[in-house]
């Protein structure tokens, strides 16, 4: 699980996004939809799911706002993300294996942004954080 050092690194990285969060979220979403095409089925109701589309950019922003919120709730993710878990479990019916896929895409996009600042320690902290977010989002699946 996340150590105090991991949590500090996650907060530091998030603090350095400086307005780039929306673009990184959109890129991660594009990566997910392209690299793991089975995920496209969940977004079939969008008018356009291609890279750079309004829907993709807007949802990238939505995801990153939720992740920012999760960073603030890093000490209690299961309670903090319970509404979002409920939504993905019962209304959206997302297969929970997809949380890992979006997490990998987010880590990839963050690595591209941060380049040499994305050290193995930062990589570990971010991976563990998204794993904890994914576990919390899976909590309401029964
Ligand atoms: C909607 C966050 C993972 C599919 C949403 C919303 C948020 C969110 C904040 C909007 C909720 C609302 O309207 O109240 C997240 C976070 C994730 C995650 C933080 C993991 C880090 C996934 C994954 C999938 C997915 C892996 C599917 C592959 C959807 C869909 C919607 C949605 C289909 C509705 C979008 C729409 O109709 O415009 N998500 N999500 N989510 N999410 Fe997720």
TrEMBL record:
Identification of the protein by name: Globin domain-containing protein
Any one GO cellular component localisation term in the record: haptoglobin-hemoglobin complex
Taxonomic lineage: Eukaryota, Metazoa, Chordata, Craniata, Vertebrata
GO MF entries: haptoglobin binding; heme binding; metal ion binding; organic acid binding; oxygen binding; oxygen carrier activity; peroxidase activity
Domain Globin residue range list: 1-142
UniProt cross-references to PROSITE patterns, sorted A to Z: GLOBIN
Biological process (GO), any one: hydrogen peroxide catabolic process
Similarity section: Belongs to the globin family.
Gene3D superfamilies reported in the protein's UniProt record: Globins
Keyword line: Heme, Iron, Metal-binding, Oxygen transport, Transport
């Amino acid at each position: 699980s996340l150590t105090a050092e991991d949590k500090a690194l996650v907060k530091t990285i998030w603090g350095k996004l400086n307005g780039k969060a929306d673009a990184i979220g959109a890129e991660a979403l594009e990566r997910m939809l392209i690299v793991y095409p089975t995920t496209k089925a969940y977004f079939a109701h969008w008018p356009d799911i291609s890279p750079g589309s309004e829907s993709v950019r807007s949802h990238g922003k939505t995801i990153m706002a939720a992740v920012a919120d999760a960073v603030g709730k890093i000490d209690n993710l299961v309670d903090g993300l319970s509404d979002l878990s409920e939504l993905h479990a019962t209304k959206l019916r997302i297969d929970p294996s997809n949380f890992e896929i979006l997490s990998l895409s987010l880590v990839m996009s963050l690595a591209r942004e941060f380049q040499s600042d994305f050290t193995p320690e930062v990589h570990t902290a971010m991976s563990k954080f998204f794993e904890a977010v994914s576990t919390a989002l899976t909590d309401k699946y029964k």
